[in-house]
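Working notes for the structural subgroup meeting. M.R. asked for a predicted model of this chain before we commit to crystallization trials. I am recording the input and output together here so anyone reviewing the notebook later can reproduce the run.

Input as submitted:
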Amino acid sequence: MGQKTGKFFIVALVFCCIILSVTGCGEAEKEYNKAVELMENGKYEDCLKHFADAIKKNSEKAEYYIAYGTALNRTGRYKEAAGEFGKAYQDTDNQISRQNNKRLYLGQAVAYYGMGESKKALEACDKALSYGKDQDVDIKIQSIKASAKLLMGDISGAEGIYNDIIKEDSSQDGIYLARGRLYQMQGEDDKALEDYSNAIKASEKCYDAYFAIYEIYTRLGDNSKAEDILKKLSGLEMETAEELMQLGRMYYYKGDYKNAKSNFDKSVKGGCNEALYYTGMVYMAEKDYNTAISRFKEYTGTGSTEKAPEAYNQIAGCYIELEDFESASAYIDKGMEFGVTNAGMVLGRNRVVLYERTGKYKKAKKAAVLYLEKYPGDKEMEKELEFIKTRIKTMQLAKNDTKGEKQ
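Returned structure, recorded in token form:
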């Protein structure tokens, strides 16, 4: 009798463990799904807790670590992200583990790039590419490789990668856009215009390509062609909140701030938080810096991170105009916490400008040197650094002369 009772107890215990395990997995999946929903809506800060809770409840799912790492990347927490991706590695050879390993190394590449560690980013890209062929994912990986090469000052290497992608798939509007920007940086406007035009052919609603073309023609003084590209843009059907934001951008470029604000307001009401950022840009153009700061802060307060570094940069710019240099410095710091981003270069330049504006030339020199370590090959900053060195030398000579006179 005692033996039967013992067996029953063991069976019951095992059954309870199975029930608890299944319950735990179910709760983990609920947390994970909630996190994914928030992440898809651009609420990256809000989703982090749910990913962490999902992992606490079930630490065996590689997908959880990969998604968590992706969200951390989007919030600029690159070091944490690299660690989470590392936990997702699976030392097995099957289709699912290969797909997961490919994605985790892609995530690590993004994290290393964000930290400015270009060589590690390239190594992670190569590891990701070694896990079989997946065209869509491979294009993302190759794009990171190109960005890392640009960061290292390897312009021809980045161009070669873009060329290879386009040769294999000419429908990639984003790659045309990226290569166009590369050409534009090199002062090759004709090549840039051709790539931006090809981006529009690949995707009629590649809005950034329209604005890039407009900027080039405006800079070249060809106002007729600049107006034509905006006219072409205005002819597109625009009804969604995101599309109304693009329409607002068009009016902003034309200097029609009233219609720009109207469309941005409609876009915000439709749920497009990014329109708040552009509303701030309008007020900034009108030199209403306090209202602009308010709109940029409202945007960052939504939890959206897509343009957060740019928003912090613009806030800093507003404070510089208001001569509140302490606040400007604080917001440059906030923006630079996001690591290497499209706004990172501008933030780095503004850090140098801020020190120059406040007469702190030694700090300006240090900031310029650090900037060039992160972004080698920036000719404008190289010139600025030489100016700063000359300024420091001149000030030192003047100081020495003053001492001599006193003696």
